[in-house]
Amino acid sequence: MAVGDSRRGALGRGGLLALVAAVLAWACPAGALENGLARTPPMGWLHWERFLCQTDCSQDPRRCISEKLFMQMADLMVSEGWRDVGYQYLCIDDCWMAPSRDEKGRLQPDPKRFPSGIAKLADYIHSKGLKLGIYADVGNKTCAGFPGSYGYYELDAQTFASWGVDLLKFDGCYCDTVDLLAEGYKTMSRALNKTGRSIVYSCEWPLYQKLMQKPNYTEIKQFCNYWRNFADIYDAWNSIRNVLDWTTLHQDNLTDVAGPGGWNDPDMLVIGNFGLSWDQQVTQMALWAMMAAPLLMSNDLRHISSASKALLQNKEVIAINQDPLGKQGYQITKDNNFELWERPLSGGAYAIAIVNRQEIGGPQTYKFSLTFLGNGLACNPACSIQQILPTSRNLGLHNWVSFLKVLVNPTGTVLLKSVVIEEKRVVGGTHALGIS
Ligand code: GAL
Description:
The chain folds into two domains: 12-321, TIM Barrel (Alpha-Beta Barrel), CATH 3.20.20; 330-433, Golgi alpha-mannosidase II (Immunoglobulin-like), CATH 2.60.40.1180. The chain is an alpha/beta fold and 436 residues long. It has an eight-stranded parallel beta sheet with strand order 7-6-5-4-3-2-1-8. The chain has 14 helices and 16 strands. Helix 7 links the parallel strand 4 and strand 5 (200-203). It binds beta-D-galactopyranose. Beta-D-galactopyranose (GAL) binds next to loops. Beta-D-galactopyranose binds at residues 48, 93-94, 142-144, 171, 173, 204, 232.
């Protein structure tokens, strides 16, 4: 009797099915794309918001989408300390391709702008200790009109793997039906896995699905490492505000699904560009950390103020974003123009953000009770509180009936971290703090 037969005899048909189910459940636990990647939100740089689709290098050699641009950014990511604080993925967006596939049907880069080819660029980027991201589209064309992957999913996945690509942003333009969209995103996910190369998979599935029907986040999380839900970000407070409002409105669905291996993507960080005031940049950084969002900067690392750079490289904020518990934060209350957000962190700590949404006047004070944070557990019986943004300072020890008072600039945010303390080494009663 063959080994397989004897097992079948011992277990019976039901037993065998149960065993198969148990093995499958172990190998691919329900709920998440378990490709071992994106255990914390991916960090890096993505060209789109800042550089868009300039393909004319003779007219604009410093800003056109070319291998030179990515090599310069790679150099700066190392020399200016970006890589060392965690920004690892250097990502190409739309407009890298030649207008048609090669004679074997493979995608190819524009020969003038990427004369060395993507594999060579990947080698360069890898030699710097960075990873390379690339862009393609589930439909017939990319959003900017370059060749789409529809009908070529397997081939494109293999091409990207053979080039040494580490992340794929898969857009959803030119895909006619919700079924084709879903099938396309799933097929590409399987095709990437089949290559055997570790390739982070970034989807825009829910954003495009939303136009036709309600996204099924449980399904999306089984196939994607992170996913865009909302319209493209742009370099203005209005855009940041829209992302935050939409996220708050849908936060019950969104926070439930996020976690190690799968994240909601509120789109790129536009810090260091032209449109946000200092306080608005602080708000974007603080809230992207609260939302456990991928931190993909889209700015020009050759021209960035030291203040924006320090904000983007702030290790305490990055540590909140990258917290290993992987729980997405949420708004707990809106009180006139103030929003109070919390995010549970590992070790019983909490990140707390107070956003002042008022767009007129000067700084305003917000006073809130620590009693209700973390369902009553964040500061129970006591906690130490550190202010992280806009400046770092120790706010001392508090107990669970303490009140905190913070002063927040219009459209700005105060970001705090509380760490629970067991023994009552605390100044008792109501404890007011002024924060400037
Ligand atoms: C959009 C996408 C943007 C950018 C652009 C490129 O659909 O949301 O992030 O990738 O296409 O054409």
